[in-house]
Amino acid sequence: MPEKKILIIEDEFPMRYLIEHALKKAGFHIHLAKDGPDGVQRALQLQPDLIILDVMMPGMSGFDVCTQIKNDPAGSKIPIIFLSANESAHYRQKAFAVGGDEYLTKPFDGSELIAHITAVIRRQKQKQSGQLFAQQGQTLSLFSPKGGVGTSTLAIQLAEAIVIQETRPVALIDLDLPLGGIGPMLYMDGEQNILELLRGPQNHLSMNRINQVAQHRRTEMIVLTAPGVMMNTAYNQQMQEQLRRLLQILKENNYLVIIDGGSTLTPLVHTALQDSEMIFVVTSGKPVANRLHDEFVAAASQLGIEPHRMLPVVNELHGRIDSIQLARVPVARFPHASERSRSRLWLKDQGMRKLVGLLN
Predict the structure, then answer these.
(1) CATH number, position 320
(2) pTM of the entire structure?
(3) Which of 169, 173, 160 is nearest to 214 (CA)?
């Protein structure tokens, strides 16, 4: 990638210095602004390839800065990455509503920021050339017959890895009903959730309706959470048909659909598995989890699923395992990691790269 101009709008000197140092080292040409008004002026004058914008600044917030830049014809097409220490879904949704292209939470490391910058610039270039999202939509599911093996974590990591590394739109769906794990992990509430779509009238289901219920995690990543509270989730045939229709609409709109099926084979999860092109069956590598994994894979044909669509994945949550006894060779293996490093597996871990590579 040729040298790109990056404008950093950040009021705190230490953070501004750290970002500048990391990006200069990566070969970017850096310009600085210490507050909102200065940032708006320099953005419109410099016409940078991308702006890194802090949310919380005295006098003029990052949201207001973004609004002014995007409302000016000279700045309307400049991509903006928000930085914030606030993980709340409300802040994230507001960032996208005012025209932000990405939202990154502090603290972060330099490689993570550079990955986001590269993805946003690449996406902007593809938009301008009309080549964005040429890949066909597809559905993949993660499921484990043994609970507590990190299925939700892997689903989130895989979704984010695809958005950033492959520049594809992703829909992440939590079918581990009713509580789910994705919403709490992403600081999203379940007030609007997947059941609103599955229990609604079939003729009202559309991409527009899906967008009304979904929450945005990133520019090209929507999330349909579980309710997050104990409630009656009685299933019926209509809900299964509605799920099939939902998956079809998303695929017709070129989404890669990632489903967290949890560890209970409910009728909805069964439907999702049957409609998935690939199923990552997750085990921790421990004997009990491995036995349940093998029994589930062996029952594939009885479940109406071609066995070749079930792909074993080992997630070593409980520490390194030198010898893993599985009936089939795993397609990916994730080494034990701390929760902090685990949040960035999409950047550095070969297991995640293998999963992403299987989608091409």
Answers:
(1) 3.40.50.300
(2) 0.88
(3) 173
